[in-house]
Amino acid sequence: MEKKVVLEAKDLCKSFSNESVQQHVIRNLNLKIYEGDFTVIMGNSGSGKSTLLYSLSGMDRPTLGQVIYGDEDISSYSNDKLAVFRRNHCGFVFQQNYLNDTMSALDNVMVSGLLLTKDRKALAARAAELLHKVEINDRDMRKFPSQLSGGQQQRVAVVRGVINKPEILFADEPTGALNSQNTENVLDILTELNNEGQSIVMVTHSIKAAERGNRVIYLADGVVKSEIRLTGTDGKERHTKLKSFLTDMGW
């Protein structure tokens, strides 16, 4: 049985104008994002990875084409309606954590949750539960971000991204600024979330990060060159299979 499609790009194009030169970053791209998948987007620098992620999530508008959610083209939404779409259906984790340094870790998570609920007691309980799951204890969750390590900050950012139970979690190079141990910690969290049913779309340049996905999309010159499924393979086999695929892609 085919998985449910939660988001679909149809003939997607994105261009940027620089003085008299027009740069075509995404070119007539078609892609389906399936429920429960951990979809990884890879490609060489300038291939359009982040542009695609921002277009799919409603953070940017395509120049042409459609992004379909349900029966609606979200790329035709007004800015206000797009903001509501992102708030209700999407979570985000970036390379930089973008935490508010004047708020505690707990408050950074809760401020996102308050966009959807005014039940502060229930929200605080859920936020604390999620922070505990990523090994942020009661003492640390009351610290300001500057008092936490880089790895702790990114774990807080992941919790902030899922506090509203998004249908899709979008992650743009979420481990790009972390050392090897913190990278493993954050990837473990994303893997656990996916095992619990969270749909994830992640852009990365790291093979180690990409191995955590069950579907890897390879972009080249703004189009999907190919893709591979990694389901049902163990760690070593996944690494070998993915590395072989990337070599074939010219990565």
Unreliable stretches (pLDDT < 50, length at least 5) are none
SS field, number of helical segments: 8
**CATH H-level name... which superfamily?**
P-loop containing nucleotide triphosphate hydrolases
Largest sheet: 6 strands, mixed
The tally of structural domains comes to 1
The multimeric state of the shown protein is: single chain
Mean pLDDT: 94
- H-E string: EEEHEEHEHHHEHEHEEH
Anisotropy-based shape? globular
* C-alpha-based Rg, rounded: 18 Å
Percent of residues in β-strands: 25-35%
Total strand segments = 10
Describe the strand arrangement of the main beta sheet, using strand numbers. Answer: 6-7-8-3-9-10
Per CATH, the architecture is 3-Layer(aba) Sandwich
Broad CATH class: Alpha Beta
Short synopsis of the structure:
The protein has helices spanning 49-57, 79-89, 105-113, 120-133, 150-162, 180-195, 207-210, 235-249; strands at 5-18, 21-34, 38-43, 64-69, 72-73, 90-94, 168-172, 199-203, 215-220, 223-229. The protein is α/β, with parallel strands linked by helices and 251 residues long.
Structural features:
single chain, 251 residues, 4-stranded antiparallel sheet, 8 helices, 10 strands, globular
